[in-house]
Amino acid sequence: MNADLLEHPEQLQRGYATATPAARLRAIKQRLAAAHNEMGSTRLVTVVSGVEALARSLVVHAPGRPASTAEMRHRQFRATGPVQLVEEALALRGGGRPEATFGEEAWDFFQVAVRYRDLIVHECTVIGQDRHPTLIAATESVLRGLVEVAGLESGPKVVVGA
């Protein structure tokens, strides 16, 4: 068996662990652009996974955490789900409650999108085409909110009275 093939996942994991949130966002945007024309269920998986990846990076690279411990922290949060990662990222970045940050409806639909994503991936299923637009839109809204809270595209956000 090809040793490089066996070692590559670990190399990728190390790269993801040490990449800054801005670098992760660039990769996420590239993946989302490539997935733009994918079937609804596949796109939903990609968008939810993008939120999960960015939120994990924001937790791992939270202000005051040394870069030298990023791999260790990434391992700690590797199995943490998207909902918990988003909540933790908001708490660490002063973003407040998810309902207030993203809107109650978007947050509710994002949580359902995560459940559907897990069913699609782990049960090898698809969901009705009528469900995709709402779930994808809510998930994209959460992604945009995380980007804003983290100040990844327009400089740091000042949170008043958090």
Would you give an account of this structure?
- It contains eight helices and no strands.
- Helix 3 runs parallel beside helix 5 and helix 7 (104-123) crosses helix 8.
- Mean pLDDT is 91; it is low at 155-162.
- It has 162 residues and is mainly α.
- The chain is globular, with a radius of gyration of 16 Å.
- The protein has one domain.
- The chain has helices spanning 3-18, 21-34, 40-60, 70-77, 82-93, 98-102, 104-123, 132-150.
- It is 71% helix and 0% strand.
Attribute tags:
single chain, 162 residues, mainly alpha, 8 helices, disordered C terminus
Average pLDDT for all residues: 91
Name the beta content range: under 5%
With helices defined by DSSP (H or I, 4 residues minimum), what is the helix count? 8
Report how far the terminal alpha carbons are from each other. Answer: 54 Å
Overall tally of structural domains: 1
Number of strands: 0
Helix content: over 70%
Radius of gyration: 16 Å
Structural class estimated from helices and strands: mainly alpha
| Pattern of helices and strands | HHHHHHHH
Largest sheet features: none
What would the principal axes of the Cα set say about the shape? globular
Low-confidence stretches: 155-162
